[in-house]
Amino acid sequence: MRITRPLSFFALAFALVLAHAGERAGSSDSRSMEALLVESLLSVSGNKLDVALNEVDTLLKINPKFKLAQLVRGDLLMARARPLSEFGNAPDAPRERMEDLRDEARARLQRFQEQSPSALVPQFLWQLDAQQRYAIVVDTSKSTLYLYENVNGEPHYVADYYVSSGKNGSEKLSEGDQKTPLGVYFVKSSLPKNQLTDLYGSGAYPLSYPNEWDRKQGRDGHGIWLHGTPSDTYSRPPRASNGCVVLSNEDLDNLGKLLQVGVTPVIITNKMDWSNEQTRTERTALVGEIEQWRKDWSSRDTEAYLKHYAADFSSGNMDISSWTQLKKQVTAGKSWIKVNISNLSLFAYPNQPDMVVVSFEQDYASNNLSNQMKKRQYWMKRDNRWQIVYEGAA
What is the pTM of this model? Predict the structure, then answer.
């Protein structure tokens, strides 16, 4: 029995396991199953086919719906009769299906290769507010969802999960393009299993796509969810959804216990970058600008207040001209204004340099009006100056 070279997956697995031996202690169940899969591939690479078969059988006893593991098992059984020239060498197998499983193998091997970023913070998570117990960052290029806990406003790594995303990649533009959007979104609602077809698995969490920036850019479509897999499926290939982010049902159930409707941020990117000293410096500068905006509004200095707004600013149907006219008219009728903000969150926008989504609780009072509201602003840095390009109720 032998497997002919090259079998790049098996060779890569061998290197990965040697480099990361023992590294997965204490990892999540899904991570542990990835490790079991790669260990089986290691045995194949060492031509220990019986050992590999025992290992993959153990994995399939734990999760018989793991189709990638079933493919490896099929390869191992066929290797007893003839040499295998490639990964997924089943005769007459649908080519597209084999390519999907090979893509999943690549994605899972890449995930196994990379250390859990326990000491790193995504550059997108500038600041969490007190209500946001957790935050999510999805990197579609790595088929990975990262979960962070809010510890005194700072994100701390908890876990990461394999995910599937849009068939046609990321950066959704229009309805039906089968792409996953990139941006800052929030969990909008929770749909239980009994309200869904089997395609969505154990549940679904619709996201706030299109958000304010998407609409400003003319992007449309709807129905972007976090959801599970069909009852006969453990996981789907990296590019298999119509635009949603798909987890195994087990992972979704674990994640769902932590999600807060209307509160939990879900940031989707196609390139994960990590926070550094420059990120922290920019955050401090923006927080200072937001505080100055608050002070200028409270002081009734309309000219200073309006300088915080960009020339291409919009709010609903208002552009900067109509906004300026409204604010001058309103302020003229005030003898005093007090504005306080609390529960401030800041999230840098993926694929949009120098733009940050800012949300906060606003407490407004004046001589003839008082109200409280949740407000959202999009601040963009241009010519070394932060300005507001969108403002509205969250």
Answer: 0.89
The answer to whether residue 119 sits within a structural domain is no
Is 325 exposed, middle or buried (CB count within 10 Å of its CB: 0-12, 13-18, 19+)? exposed
Domain count, the chain: 3
Residue 356 and residue 332: Cα distance in Å, rounded?
Answer: 31
Could you read off the pLDDT of 362-374 as tens digits, one per residue? 999 999 999 999 9
Q: Which residues contact 379 (CB under 8 A, 6 or more apart)?
A: 286, 289, 290, 355, 356, 358, 386, 387, 388, 389
Task: Give the span between the Cα atoms of 378 and 49, in whole angstroms.
Answer: 56
- If asked whether residues 296 and 263 sit together in one domain, one would say no
Would the pLDDT of 139 be above 50? yes
Residues 165 and 292 in one domain: no
Q: How far apart are CA 121 and CA 273, in angstroms?
A: 9
Q: Find the CATH number of the domain harbouring 170.
A: 2.40.440.10
CB-neighbour burial class of residue 332 (10 A; exposed 0-12, middle 13-18, buried 19+) = exposed
**pLDDT tens digits for 72-84?**
888 888 777 766 6
What pLDDT does 19 receive? 39
